[in-house]
Amino acid sequence: MARRKRASQSIVRAxxxxxxxxxxxxxxxxxxxxxxxxxxxSVEAANATLATYNTQLSELDGLLDDVRKAEAALNLMxxxxxxxxxxxxxxxxxxYAQAGGSFYKSRAKKKPTTPETPxx
Length: 120
Prior knowledge:
The protein is mainly alpha-helical and 120 residues long. The protein has one domain. It is 62% helix and 0% strand. It contains 3 helices and no strands. Helix 1 (9-24) runs antiparallel to helix 2 (36-89).
């Protein structure tokens, strides 16, 4: 399942404000580095950061898929190895137990459950 990409309401709001401020004066300067050009630069920087974030999420999804494939291959190999040990030494051997297998008799058997009757 792919990770959700992020959109930014702050960036959309800032772009809308920049368009509205540009209608007032294309070279708007309110002092203290509050200029229309500075606002547009900040919007572009935020957009670039968001695009980088979303790109890295996509790359991360690809890496997660690679990890899952590697885990599946590893699980298959481990299963085949334990089966090969059981074929070579038998499922009731010490070697099979050392490899991580369990004896048939040592496996817990499910007992039928009976409902308890409350005492009278």
